[in-house]
Design a protein that fits this description.
This protein has 125 residues and is mostly helical. The chain has five helices and two strands; from the N terminus they run αααββαα. α3 (31-44) runs antiparallel to α5 (95-119). GO terms for molecular function: ABC-type transporter activity. Residues 7-44 form the ABC-2 type transporter transmembrane domain.
Length: 125
């Protein structure tokens, strides 16, 4: 049950802009969304200002065959970043913030585990 809720509010199964307002707090306290946002932003980002991609037209992928950006072949070979950033509410500029938040969650869970192991004894449960 917890995994289902965590996955549904991570912005992957239900996009961020479709999550009901009441449940939005789950999106912000969800470590999965920080991992997904940082990894997908890095994997799919396309910089159209790069020299090889300056001639790219978003709707005409044949305009720049030398551009190394990831493309979606079953959607007319368009650039994946422009689908992913709108669908998953990605922002390439937030990748370091997402990584930092993920690191913070890891530290919090590690400290909580150490405290739990110190004070919770098997024979006292």
């Amino acid at each position: 049950m917890c995994d289902s809720c965590r996955n549904m509010t991570s912005g992957f199964m239900i996009p961020k802009n479709k999550i009901p307002t009441f449940w939005m707090w789950l999106y912000w306290v969800n470590p999965t969304q920080y991992a997904l946002n940082s990894l997908t932003a890095i994997a799919f980002h396309c910089d159209l200002e790069a020299p090889l991609c300056q001639s790219c037209d978003i709707l005409n992928p044949a305009s720049c065959p030398e551009c190394p950006c990831v493309r979606v072949s079953d959607q007319g070979n368009i650039l994946a970043w422009f689908i992913m950033k709108d669908l998953m509410s990605l922002n390439y500029g937030d990748r370091y913030q997402s990584m930092g938040m993920l690191f913070l969650f890891i530290c919090i869970f590690m400290v909580a585990s150490v405290i739990a192991l110190k004070y919770m004894k098997y024979n006292q449960r």
